[in-house]
């Protein structure tokens, strides 16, 4: 039997994806970003607390999410462009199938930034995420400075990053 919490989270995310337009929402509680330390696709641990001194884009997404898939090429491009200037991007997959769903997608898209598998607990820690994609920008001191619900374009993300890098 499937985990009822995962099913509920998936239902809420799907509802939010189709019911809510793409909007920019200020961070619910500006302050320290909830920390997490999760294994990435290569088996290395991505620890948000060890990213101090960098601007971190935390992107909640899933392989089945069309807007998520559309924004990934822009994230790949911006990561390549700004990584040396102190940008880190981490994709937090909320795919119910975990790595079984994510690994084939990663091979196909050649994402150049860390991808980890999140869960409902992490989504709740970031303010009860109702729809994906949802993207948070964390400044060099570890504070959430922006939250964007829905597809984020390259132009939108780059404009937000320029003042922080």
Can you offer a commentary on this structure?
This protein is α/β, with parallel strands linked by helices and 165 residues long. It has a single domain, classed as 3-Layer(aba) Sandwich (Glutaredoxin), CATH 3.40.30. The chain is 36% helix and 22% strand. It contains five helices and eight strands, in the order αββββαβαβαββα. The strands form two sheets. A six-stranded mixed β-sheet has the order 1-8-7-4-5-6, with helices on one face. A two-stranded antiparallel sheet has the order 2-3. A hairpin with a 5-residue loop joins β2 and β3. It is globular and about 35 Å long.
Summarize the entry for a quick read.
With 165 residues, the protein is of the alpha/beta class.
Furnish the topology, listing elements before pairings.
Elements: H1 4-19, E1 23-25, E2 37-39, E3 45-47, E4 55-61, H2 66-82, E5 87-93, H3 99-109, E6 115-117, H4 120-125, E7 134-138, E8 144-149, H5 154-162
Parallel strand pairs: 4-5, 5-6
Antiparallel strand pairs: 1-8, 2-3, 4-7, 7-8
């Amino acid at each position: 039997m499937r985990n009822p919490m995962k099913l509920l989270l998936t239902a809420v995310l799907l509802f939010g994806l189709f019911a809510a337009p793409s909007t920019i929402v200020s961070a619910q509680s500006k302050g320290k970003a909830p920390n997490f330390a999760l294994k990435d696709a290569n088996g290395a641990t991505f620890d948000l607390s060890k990213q101090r001194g960098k601007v971190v884009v935390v992107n909640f997404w899933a392989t089945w999410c069309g807007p998520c898939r559309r924004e990934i090429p822009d994230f790949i491009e911006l990561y390549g462009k700004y990584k040396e200037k102190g940008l880190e991007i981490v994709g937090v997959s909320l795919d119910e199938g975990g790595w079984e769903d994510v690994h084939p997608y990663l091979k196909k898209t050649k994402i150049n930034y860390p991808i980890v598998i999140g869960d409902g607990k992490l989504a709740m820690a970031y303010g009860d995420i109702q729809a994906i994609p949802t993207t948070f920008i964390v400044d060099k001191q570890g504070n959430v400075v922006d939250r964007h619900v829905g597809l984020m374009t390259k132009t939108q993300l780059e404009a937000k990053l320029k003042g922080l890098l």
